[in-house]
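User: As part of a screening pipeline, I want to sanity-check one entry by hand. Below is the sequence and the SMILES for LM24SWP5. Please return the complex as structure tokens so I can compare it with the automated output.
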Amino acid sequence: MPDKIVVAGVSVDTRHWIGGERVASAEMFTDHSPIDGKPIGEISRGTPTEAAAAVAAAKAAFPGWAATSRAERARILHAVADGVEKRLEELAIVETTDNGALLRSHRRGVMPRVAHNFRFFADWLLTLGHEDFETRGHTNHVSWDPAGPCVLITPWNAPLMLATWKVAPALAAGNTVVLKPAEWSPLTASLLADIAAEAGLPAGVLNVVQGYGSEIGDALTAHPDVRRISFTGSVPTARRIAASAAANLTPLSLELGGKSPLLVFADADLDRAVDLAVEQYDNAGQVCLAATRFLVEESVAQEFTRRFVEKATALVQGDPRDEGTDIGPTIHPRQLEKIDGFVQRALAAGARAVIGGHRRDGRYYAPTLLTDVAQDAEIVQEEVFGPVLTLQTFATEDEAVRLADDTRFGLAATLVTGDPERAERVSARLVAGTVWVNCFFVRDLQAPFGGSRHSGVGREGGTWSFDFYCDLRNTVTAPTGWTNHG
Ligand SMILES: NC(=O)C1=CN([C@@H]2O[C@H](COP(=O)(O)OP(=O)(O)OC[C@H]3O[C@@H](n4cnc5c(N)ncnc54)[C@H](O)[C@@H]3O)[C@@H](O)[C@H]2O)C=CC1
Ligand SMILES: O=C(O)/C=C/C=C(\O)C(=O)O
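Assistant: Here is the complex for your manual check:
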């Protein structure tokens, strides 16, 4: 099998990146493009042996990287960002080919965000204070010490963006990393390894292991030398990882699914509400933060639905490489099956498809809005992770809050209202890691990000990332000449 494949004109190494070297596995797995379902290439299929080698490389590189000054770490991370920006077009087209998300989004939003992830955490590192305070004449000195090798496990819906949202703070904190990208979208992680090496990141500081989570996951997450695990993905996999990490009490950060509400009150600017609602089809609905449950005040529900249908039916679904495409394919036939299963079960249970409700050719699923759904219905309670939205109505603010909060998730919520006092009141009553008022997906990397309940454990972002990726130490020093007897 070739060590390199050419993807949309870009050469991508198909091997792992361990200790600053490319390492091949005996077995391979086939990576397919969601655009047409065709094979892109054969990728090294990691085994527990390569997983252990990657952790060993991260362990060996840790003392050197941890001892590197903050300024030097920040300089190298900025050089990684430069490399991302230099290869932005290549990263964008490779990612689109691999995961089917829109090329225009990768070019204009996602890949610039990848670079920003590195710049932001490099700069934030330099602002981290050493908290000093006094206790009865003694000095307390709080330091942010690197924790050690980190295992970062990432999904396929925004592969490089979500990987670097973890890699950047982990490296900035002085840790070394083993990154395990999703097997449905392995390519840009390999390009990141090249970019990091060119930027001067020392060997072993970033390692990339390819393969199936079910085959190498435990070898990474149960490894006694791993000091942190950060995971974004599904709840069942999170449970498995948490169980595996329990053996060594390895600290975890889990960013999981959602079933977030979009609350539209009668006092809202309806056009804005509809614009925000249509945005929920972004990335073919494969977004953990998506506000997939529309909760609309009865008096405006009919007009909201009319305007939504007008806008949603004008969306163009097709090849994600075309500038005019608004919705691309779903990632994998298994995901398509899963999405359609949810929709057909909902229809059989009495839901009505206002639009969509069916597959299209290939891996494409028609943008769908379902109504006449009960609060306890599977389609209202479970994450679909596809272009499938539901609409329910409410009569009072209390009912809106009750419906919004009545799932096992707590990742995000979006409110559309013209009344700032209502916005404040309702936000305070919702269990959600992020609440957006009259906006959606406005992200500042210094904000805490994560979910409550089954949407996750812990927060990352700004200082919260360093809180997770560092071992905080308090050193208490007695004043000169002090004795226990005073
Ligand atoms: N929160 C989010 O952003 C995401 C949520 N999901 C949800 O999960 C559903 C299923 O998607 P999947 O791809 O099956 O998600 P998944 O959670 O199984 O996969 C995510 C990552 O976990 C890895 N993984 C799988 N088993 C593992 C194990 N035992 N140990 C360590 N790592 C392991 C995978 O290789 C991949 O890198 C979706 O339909 C969606 O509802 C999926 C991807 C992202
Ligand atoms: O903005 C972030 O840091 C995270 C975004 C998460 C997603 O887009 C996702 O998981 O779908």
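Points to compare against the pipeline: The mean pLDDT is 97. Residues 157-158, 162, 165, 232, 287-289, 443, 449 surround LM24SWP5 (ligand 2) (CB under 6 Å).
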